[in-house]
């Protein structure tokens, strides 16, 4: 039986070979990871393009938000302030969250809780759980805007916030619509 004892020279050669293998492994791994991440980014970009872009060759899977939901607002001065009505024309296969409808306005202005011309339906949403939504073709949300001092206000900036989804599995990001409203003085 013979046992080979490594010489100093063979140990040095083995260490260099090991360092070379580690370096080669690192280069190959880094190259592979870079290639995979670039493929992933390209696939994600293509996936987003497939969602919203349409070409003559193929139709998109989801409508752009402004096609899925047409949102308009109107106002009417009354003796109690200004009635703000927000109309949602909802494309079939889509819905608007009742609880995501909100107003932002300057200090000194108040709004009553929204009333709706339609009753919401309850769905089990993957993001928010059991929530009320509007699926009807046309939904109108109404509120009364007043100033805290009872005087009128011209061109008060109002931001309407809302969010909707496609039943096929896409929730659009929250939307904001900026408008200016003349608020009528209230009669006491």
Features:
single chain, 188 residues, alpha+beta, five-stranded antiparallel β-sheet, 2 helices, 26% helix
Provide the fold topology.
Blueprint: H1 8-52, H2 65-68, E1 69-78, E2 81-90, E3 94-97, E4 102-104, E5 109-111, E6 115-116, E7 121-125, E8 129-134, E9 138-147, E10 153-162, E11 164-166, E12 170-171, E13 175-183
Antiparallel strand pairs: 1-2, 2-9, 3-8, 3-11, 4-10, 5-9, 6-9, 7-8, 10-13, 11-12
What Rg, in angstroms, do the CA atoms define?
31 Å
Mean pLDDT, as a whole number? Answer: 80
State the helix count. Answer: 2
The biggest beta sheet is recorded as: 5 strands, antiparallel
Helix content range: 25-40%
Instruction: Characterize the overall form.
Output: elongated
* SSE arrangement, N to C: HHEEEEEEEEEEEEE
* Strand percent estimate: 35-45%
By DSSP, the count of extended strands is: 13
Sheet/helix structural class: alpha+beta
Assembly annotation = single chain
N-to-C span: 114 Å
The low-confidence runs, each spanning 5 or more residues with pLDDT under 50, are 34-58
Please tell me about this protein's structure.
It contains two helices and 13 strands; from the N terminus they run H-H-E-E-E-E-E-E-E-E-E-E-E-E-E. The chain has helices at residues 8-52, 65-68; strands at residues 69-78, 81-90, 94-97, 102-104, 109-111, 115-116, 121-125, 129-134, 138-147, 153-162, 164-166, 170-171, 175-183. A hairpin with a 2-residue loop joins strand 1 and strand 2 (81-90). The longest helix is centred in the N-terminal third of the chain and has 45 residues, at 8-52. It starts with 7 loop residues before the first helix and ends in a 5-residue tail after the last strand.
């Amino acid at each position: 039986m013979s046992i080979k004892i490594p010489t100093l020279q063979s140990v040095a050669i083995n260490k260099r070979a090991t360092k070379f293998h580690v370096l080669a492994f690192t280069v190959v791994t880094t190259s592979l990871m870079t290639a995979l991440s670039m493929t992933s980014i390209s696939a994600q970009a293509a996936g987003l393009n497939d969602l919203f872009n349409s070409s003559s060759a193929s139709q998109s899977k989801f409508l752009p938000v402004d096609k899925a939901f047409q949102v308009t607002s109107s106002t009417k001065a009354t003796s109690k302030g200004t009635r703000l009505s927000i109309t949602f024309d909802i494309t079939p296969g889509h819905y608007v969250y009742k609880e995501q409808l909100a107003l932002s306005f300057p200090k000194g202005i108040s709004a009553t809780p929204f009333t709706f011309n339609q009753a919401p339906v309850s769905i089990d949403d993957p993001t928010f759980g059991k929530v009320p939504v509007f699926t009807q073709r046309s939904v109108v949300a109404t509120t009364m805007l007043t100033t805290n001092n009872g005087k009128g206000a011209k061109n008060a900036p109002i931001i309407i916030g809302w969010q909707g989804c496609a039943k096929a599995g896409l929730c659009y990001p929250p939307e904001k619509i900026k408008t200016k409203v003349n608020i009528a003085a209230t009669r006491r």
